User: Which sequence fits this backbone?
């Protein structure tokens, strides 16, 4: 459908002015065509064309109605807005006119404001003068109030006196504050001079307060009013201090007073001076015990007063019971340290250690039922430092050590003094010789260890270690005295008279000490004897046994000198005499306990056997014939058998005897065929590996029938078959020295010129 030129002219401005309308119309037409082509794409659908036309007509009408309504509402709102804008413009114009009028009015009043400034200054000056006029009566009455306040203090009306003092201080501080704010520092000196009497009042009041505080424990028991008054005054001053400290602009002179801290200080000094700065007391003996008992009584009594009475007189935040408890604890610790600096004896040191570590935390002092649960001694820390406790324990151990050393030395002197008595040593119910030495020594050490256990385990261990060291040193001194006594006896065998019994008593004492030492150990489950102490005991036993064997040897020596000899071969009573001497000594040995008796018996048998062999090897005799050799062997058999049977009867088994070497030696001498001698010697040195070629050579000389060749073969065989000493072997030949062979003298004998 075409459009006329007029229509085009009319549409052109609209299209140019509203391009969105044209675009919307094109979209609408396109959508309509698309819808129509979808609905009427078949001929039979054209029958409903009228129906669709009516429906779309109705819908278009409805849309146009809504559009008209919307446009109408929009136009009405625009009209209302324009009306409001016109009204606002009118009001703004009115305000501008009023502001201009006010500006001109202010400019007219500027000169009058200068007159008001002068009036304001006069008003401030009037206010100041009015304030001065108000305080003038108070200023004029300062000296009168001062006199009245002093009178109140003398009469101990402390609250009233403090009230007037606070009033005068407030007046002074207010004046000083005003001067400070106005920068009039020069006038402050005049004010301070005028109020100088306040310093005297403060000092007088403080002196009375601290006097009351120093008597507080007595006052709270008798009449707590004064003490409560002092606390109230102190709290007033604390509040004033807190208020002034919060206002940091000005702090009056003498502030803060800090009277609460001064209260604590005076109370602590009073407690310290009353009990711990006393005159010098006797640090030894009963004086220290009385002093500690008095401290115990006073501390408990005064803490009970604090807990039951003083706590009710002071505010809760004072923690007065904790303060007093800590003061007593600290002052007592310092006091005890001063005492410990003195040179105390062991009783005083023990008393102090017991009191500090046992008594002080016990129910007798700080753990008293009347003080619990408020007083907790565990929260106070140690009364004296662990280092000082350790140092004191060491001092105590040194004192005990000196006492033990002195006592042991005296015991040792008494012990060896008894050796020179005319009587034998005492015997126990079993017939064993003994003395009081082990009982005295062990009892003394045990008592000291048990006493130390009453303090601490560490002290007990220190004393135990000291006891073992001193016991070891004592055994060393005992051995030296034993050696000296043996030397003196060798010079004169009649002194001491009962030398052997006292040596046997020494062996029994040694066994008693050895069995008693484990009982000294603090720990019952650990009863081992230290190796060094065991070695010292062994040395005592060996020395005593050695002296006894030397005594036995001195009696046997004259008999050994007689063998071998022709007289001995003919059947003398030499061995019978030996057996009598041995039997005599073994009867004495029966007074010693079993372990030592067995050792003595074995050592005696070894001594008899070695001395017998030594006598045979002195080259005193050489067999001249076969018959004499047979006679020699028979005598050896008889002697060895008799001696062996003697020791068997005494309880020594054949396997433990060294006399078997005599029987073996006899076999070497009795051997009829010298050609078999190498084999026999090999067996001999296998059984007795400590035998040397000198020993064998001497034995071959004793036979008297050995050629140089046989001797050479035997000695060569020994050189080719060295025998190591087996473990546990008891040497016998190594202790026997063979005389050196005589060197041939090739010059002819002649008389000296």
Assistant:
């Amino acid at each position: 459908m075409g459009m006329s030129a007029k229509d085009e002219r009319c549409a052109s401005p609209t299209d140019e002015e509203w391009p969105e309308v044209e675009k919307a119309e094109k979209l609408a037409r396109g959508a309509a065509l698309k819808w129509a082509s979808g609905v009427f794409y078949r001929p039979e659908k054209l029958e409903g064309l009228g129906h669709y036309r009516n429906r779309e007509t109705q819908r278009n009408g409805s849309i146009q109605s809504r559009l008209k309504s919307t446009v109408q509402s929009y136009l009405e709102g625009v009209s209302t807005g324009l009306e409001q804008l016109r009204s606002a413009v009118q009001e703004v114009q009115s305000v501008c006119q009023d502001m201009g009028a006010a500006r001109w009015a202010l400019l007219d009043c500027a000169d009058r404001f200068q007159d008001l400034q002068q009036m304001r200054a006069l008003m401030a000056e009037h206010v100041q003068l009015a304030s001065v006029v108000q305080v003038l009566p108070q200023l004029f009455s300062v000296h009168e109030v001062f006199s009245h306040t002093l009178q109140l203090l003398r009469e101990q009306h402390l609250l009233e006196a403090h009230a007037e003092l606070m009033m005068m201080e407030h007046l002074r501080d207010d004046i000083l504050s005003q001067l400070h704010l106005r920068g009039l520092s020069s006038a402050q000196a005049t004010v301070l001079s005028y109020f100088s009497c306040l310093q005297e009042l403060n000092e007088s009041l403080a002196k009375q307060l601290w006097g009351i505080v120093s008597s507080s424990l007595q006052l709270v028991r008798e009449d707590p009013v004064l003490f409560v008054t002092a606390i109230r005054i102190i709290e007033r001053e604390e509040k004033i201090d807190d208020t002034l400290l919060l206002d940091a602009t000005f702090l009056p002179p003498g502030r803060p007073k800090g009277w609460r801290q001064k209260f604590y200080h005076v109370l602590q000094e009073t407690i310290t001076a009353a009990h711990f700065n006393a005159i010098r007391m006797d640090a030894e003996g009963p004086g220290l015990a009385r002093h500690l008992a008095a401290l115990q009584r006073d501390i408990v009594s005064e803490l009970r007063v604090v807990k039951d009475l003083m706590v009710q007189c002071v505010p809760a935040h004072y923690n007065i019971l904790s303060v007093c408890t800590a003061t007593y604890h600290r002052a007592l610790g310092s006091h005890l340290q001063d005492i410990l600096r003195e040179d105390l004896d062991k009783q005083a040191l023990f008393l102090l250690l017991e009191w500090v570590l046992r008594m002080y935390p016990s129910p007798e002092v700080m753990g008293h039922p009347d003080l619990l649960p408020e007083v907790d001694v565990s929260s106070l820390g140690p009364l004296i430092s662990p280092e000082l406790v350790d140092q004191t324990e060491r001092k105590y151990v040194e004192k005990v050590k000196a006492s033990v050393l002195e006592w042991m030395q005296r015991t040792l002197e008494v012990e060896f003094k008894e050796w020179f008595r005319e009587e034998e040593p005492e015997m126990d119910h079993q017939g064993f010789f003994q003395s009081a030495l082990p009982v005295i020594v062990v009892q003394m050490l045990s008592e000291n260890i048990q006493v130390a256990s009453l303090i601490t385990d560490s002290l007990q261990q220190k004393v135990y270690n000291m006891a073992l060291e001193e016991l070891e040193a004592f055994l060393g001194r005992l051995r030296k005295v034993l050696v000296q006594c043996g030397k003196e006896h060798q010079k004169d065998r009649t002194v001491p008279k009962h030398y052997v019994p006292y040596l046997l008593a020494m062996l029994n004492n040694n066994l008693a000490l050895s069995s008693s030492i484990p009982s000294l150990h603090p720990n019952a489950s650990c009863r081992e004897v230290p190796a060094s102490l065991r070695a010292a005991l062994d040395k005592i036993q060996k020395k005593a046994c050695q002296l006894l064997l030397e005594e036995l040897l001195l009696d046997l020596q004259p008999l050994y000198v007689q063998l071998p000899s022709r007289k001995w071969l003919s059947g003398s009573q030499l061995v019978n005499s030996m057996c009598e001497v041995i039997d005599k000594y073994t009867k004495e040995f029966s007074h010693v306990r079993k372990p030592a008796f067995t050792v003595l018996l074995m050592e005696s048998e070894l001594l008899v056997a070695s001395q017998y062999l030594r006598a045979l090897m002195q080259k005193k005799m050489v067999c001249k014939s076969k018959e004499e050799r047979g006679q020699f062997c028979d005598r050896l058999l008889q002697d060895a058998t008799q001696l062996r049977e003697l020791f068997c009867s005494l309880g020594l088994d054949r396997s433990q005897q060294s006399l078997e070497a005599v029987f073996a030696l006899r076999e070497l001498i009795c051997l009829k065929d010298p050609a078999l001698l190498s084999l026999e010697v090999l067996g001999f040195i296998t059984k007795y590996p400590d035998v040397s070629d000198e020993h064998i050579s001497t034995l071959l000389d004793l036979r008297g029938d050995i050629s140089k060749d046989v001797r050479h073969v035997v000695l060569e065989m020994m050189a080719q078959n060295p025998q190591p000493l087996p473990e546990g072997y008891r040497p016998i030949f190594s202790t026997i020295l063979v005389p050196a062979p005589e060197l041939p003298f090739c010059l002819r004998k002649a008389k000296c010129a």
